[in-house]
């Protein structure tokens, strides 16, 4: 859907909790200077696990951001990360709990996994103390919508909640959903975000068994995630949360807010089972997102790629970009943030959206970290190792899920 001139959708606040930095300044510094947040897992003992590294947020304590009696042990880790990111976004937007209007505030949250850490805690209680010792809060705390329920308490107002779970593109799909709510005139303001933390015993063991993450020791942990690099060996899973405040443009101006970036449109398309080419749905999600935004491929200045150091996925994404953009693809900077952030599942898309807003602010393209040996099949301008000063007005962020889900969001600097 294309926004009408009276219903332009802008970002007015952002908050991020990532392995390479908590808060916008720390996050930008890590992206622009290739400061990786990937290292050994410390949340539990990985001695007997084949996978020992991840993008873990070190020394995170919810009580550093909320009152000391906030009871973090009753919340899943991904819920805690989401609470902090959402609080940052609301404060950055200058709202601080002051939500106008008679209608309920809209909240859209993307999440990929349930809170396995809470489930594991309950199982341990059952095995060591008995089933009658499991605490009632564990029932709600382990469910995918737990973050949405917790955010209702944080926002302290009447809230209409939508929780989306569409694998790794959940964050981008949440953005598309929130965008449509405003562009269709259903709401003046929507808080949207995504959060995930697969770094539990079950999550780490399961991903390792599926053969998705890299277990390589060929490089130091901070160099294992190598998007577009010939020596890449797989994804590095991570955790995190990203939230933004979306508002109708004229409404934001009326309350004195400063628009940070405009959202033009999005689309999601799932790969067909019989497809012979990898990620064929990504071609269609990019094409549809551009058409929904009223743009043609030649008007795009930058692509924030999904590329997460997957041996086949990186190549497939490059092929889909070349198919859609033709010769113009070779003039486009196409970089990936995954070398420093790893892949935080549902939060991945929100990491990219926030990165694009920061790039538009600073007029710099973030580099692809650890890209030392370019894969011949990844032959676009992947901005290796060093940031680049460039005029960025319009950008696309891509997401892909292991079930074949593909999503794209088109963004623009505010005029």
Automatic annotation (TrEMBL):
<comment type="similarity">
    <text>Belongs to the thiolase-like superfamily. Beta-ketoacyl-ACP synthases family.</text>
</comment>
<dbReference type="InterPro" id="IPR016039">
    <property type="entry name" value="Thiolase-like"/>
</dbReference>
<keyword id="KW-0808">Transferase</keyword>
<dbReference type="InterPro" id="IPR000794">
    <property type="entry name" value="Beta-ketoacyl_synthase"/>
</dbReference>
<dbReference type="GO" id="GO:0005829">
    <property type="term" value="C:cytosol"/>
</dbReference>
<feature type="domain" description="Ketosynthase family 3 (KS3)">
    <location>
        <begin position="6"/>
        <end position="413"/>
    </location>
</feature>
<dbReference type="InterPro" id="IPR014031">
    <property type="entry name" value="Ketoacyl_synth_C"/>
</dbReference>
<protein>
    <submittedName>
        <fullName>Beta-ketoacyl-[acyl-carrier-protein] synthase II</fullName>
    </submittedName>
</protein>
<dbReference type="InterPro" id="IPR014030">
    <property type="entry name" value="Ketoacyl_synth_N"/>
</dbReference>
<dbReference type="Pfam" id="PF02801">
    <property type="entry name" value="Ketoacyl-synt_C"/>
</dbReference>
<dbReference type="InterPro" id="IPR020841">
    <property type="entry name" value="PKS_Beta-ketoAc_synthase_dom"/>
</dbReference>
<dbReference type="Pfam" id="PF00109">
    <property type="entry name" value="ketoacyl-synt"/>
</dbReference>
<dbReference type="GO" id="GO:0006633">
    <property type="term" value="P:fatty acid biosynthetic process"/>
</dbReference>
<dbReference type="GO" id="GO:0004315">
    <property type="term" value="F:3-oxoacyl-[acyl-carrier-protein] synthase activity"/>
</dbReference>
């Amino acid at each position: 859907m294309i926004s009408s001139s009276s219903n332009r959708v802008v970002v007015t606040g952002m908050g991020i909790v990532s392995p390479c930095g908590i808060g916008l300044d720390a996050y930008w510094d890590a992206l622009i200077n290739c400061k990786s947040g990937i290292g050994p897992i410390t949340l539990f003992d990985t001695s007997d696990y084949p996978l020992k590294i991840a993008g873990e947020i070190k020394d995170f304590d919810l009580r550093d951001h909320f009152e000391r009696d906030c009871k973090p042990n009753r919340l899943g880790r991904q819920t805690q990360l989401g609470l902090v990111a959402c609080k940052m976004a609301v404060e950055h937007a200058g709202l601080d709990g002051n939500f106008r209007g008679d209608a309920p505030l809209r909240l859209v949250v993307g999440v990929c996994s349930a809170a396995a850490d809470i489930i594991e805690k309950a199982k341990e209680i059952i095995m060591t103390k008995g089933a009658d010792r499991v605490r009632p809060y564990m029932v709600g705390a382990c469910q995918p919508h737990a973050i949405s329920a917790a955010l209702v308490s944080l926002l302290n107002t009447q809230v209409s909640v939508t929780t989306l779970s569409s694998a790794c593109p959940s964050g981008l799909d949440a953005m598309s959903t929130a965008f449509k709510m405003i562009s269709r005139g259903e709401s003046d303001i929507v808080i949207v975000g995504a959060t995930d933390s697969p770094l539990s015993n079950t999550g780490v063991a399961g991903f390792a068994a599926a053969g998705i993450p890299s277990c390589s020791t060929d490089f130091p942990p901070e160099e294992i995630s190598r998007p577009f690099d010939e020596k890449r060996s797989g994804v590095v899973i991570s955790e995190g949360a990203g939230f933004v405040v979306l508002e109708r443009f004229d409404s934001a101006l009326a309350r004195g807010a400063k628009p940070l970036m405009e959202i033009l449109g999005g689309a999601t398309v799932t790969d067909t089972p019989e497809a012979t080419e990898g990620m064929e749905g990504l071609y269609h999600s990019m094409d549809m997102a551009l058409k929904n935004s009223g743009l043609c491929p030649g008007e795009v200045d930058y692509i924030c790629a999904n590329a997460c150091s997957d041996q086949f996925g990186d190549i497939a994404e490059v092929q889909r970009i070349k198919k859609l953009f033709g010769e113009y693809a070779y003039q486009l900077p196409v970089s990936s943030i995954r070398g420093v952030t790893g892949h935080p599942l549902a939060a991945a898309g929100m990491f990219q959206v926030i990165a694009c807003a920061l790039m538009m602010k600073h007029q710099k393209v973030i580099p692809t970290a650890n890209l030392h040996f370019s894969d011949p099949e990844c032959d676009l301008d992947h901005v290796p190792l060093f940031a680049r000063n460039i005029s960025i007005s319009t950008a696309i962020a891509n997401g892909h899920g292991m079930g074949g889900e593909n999503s794209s969001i088109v963004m623009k600097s505010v005029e």
